[in-house]
């Protein structure tokens, strides 16, 4: 409230005056501090006294000084102001207010404890109507919810609630199921795919989804994201025809056995042509889809999703979901709190706390790795220096620095049997390892050339650990941070090494194909040929098991020449309170809001 701000201004004007200590002052002097008239100052003091924030003892007569006694601490007032901003769903302003305050660290800690209690399941009753709400924090910033423009896991999860595709993948990644299309055919050449759409499926704005929307969605994707995720899949579309309102024919330029899998990803979500065209082809923060929830607001970082009553697979149990995104500088602090949320993503819980929670270790995972830019002139053209780089990669050091029960060493994109990591043996092997690395570097003529390592800002911590780790071997790294949306551009070609991660979920083979396609851009000519041949075989192979064998073979070849260096993998966990029913998780552990309900 405005009166509270006036009190805070007044309180800050006298930092040396403690609460309950009298201050001798005139009304005119106070009015100067608040830049207001004598009359308004009288009214403000009266109101503040009614709130019991201060005591004002006026004395009549010119030259007589009145007595002011502050009661309310400015820290308490700041907290109340922040809580009021949260009630107005302005979380960012609340955090900014506390950030600018004196004793900001302790205030933010108190605020985060209070904020924790605001999340979870709640019910609001207005008259005869009951509204079931799930509110939870997302420690990521949402930049866009346009399927053609998303880059981060949080964005991807919300897009899954708002949009649907023609087909969908089961959580294990084993089977492709009907969705907006109830059936499909493919011709003998396996280049012409025909999809038959469900009738009566509605977009959030009430228009029926038609074949023309499907055609528009895929053609729009090619226009907006010609180099985006899975662009190799939709770049191969030669033509799209719509014989009638419920039939879509997609003609590919060549056989691609991964194309149907691509259509299960949210990148291939179906959007309404009329809404997109009215917004010049984009809908970054005003998405309209056919999904089980529709977006009704996103003020100040709070994204409000409302159940879509006309959803073609039936209305969800929840009425509303509020996703509260946190600024980058607040995310680590809040995620570290013991949060009494009903659903928590990507968490680690102590053994004692685990008794109160159901935990799911997700089948999906992320794997961090480095690739070598072999097109750039420099030390890494020498295979012995690449070998030294690989040998100097001390995974035990990285794991020790990162710590966590969900992080483990990785030597492949595929799970391997665990190896013995006895610490005493590791100390001996590390010493010998450092000697061998330095010998390799010396024999290759490495003279301390600085290698440039490119990554995205979100992986800066990993880059700094690598920089410190390689310095032990005498290998010098310079770090180049490139925004995720620009990482596939030309800037990364100035680097010697590229640090990135791949999410291995139900779309594992698509993500690996996309990663290798990207890697080709900075591979040596002979590696480009190897990648081209392997990816061609993948596209033409109809047996999923054989495709996986091809991917494992390709990985092995790249590891042998030290063009692909593995760091670690991270398994994610989702925890949920026993009061929740109907929990359904995708392989990266995000809860499907439509399925859950509470007892």
UniProtKB/TrEMBL annotation:
<dbReference type="Pfam" id="PF12793">
    <property type="entry name" value="SgrR_N"/>
</dbReference>
<dbReference type="InterPro" id="IPR039424">
    <property type="entry name" value="SBP_5"/>
</dbReference>
<feature type="domain" description="Transcriptional regulator SgrR N-terminal HTH">
    <location>
        <begin position="3"/>
        <end position="115"/>
    </location>
</feature>
<protein>
    <submittedName>
        <fullName>ABC transporter substrate-binding protein</fullName>
    </submittedName>
</protein>
<dbReference type="Pfam" id="PF00496">
    <property type="entry name" value="SBP_bac_5"/>
</dbReference>
<dbReference type="InterPro" id="IPR000914">
    <property type="entry name" value="SBP_5_dom"/>
</dbReference>
<keyword id="KW-0238">DNA-binding</keyword>
<feature type="domain" description="Solute-binding protein family 5">
    <location>
        <begin position="176"/>
        <end position="501"/>
    </location>
</feature>
<dbReference type="InterPro" id="IPR025370">
    <property type="entry name" value="SgrR_HTH_N"/>
</dbReference>
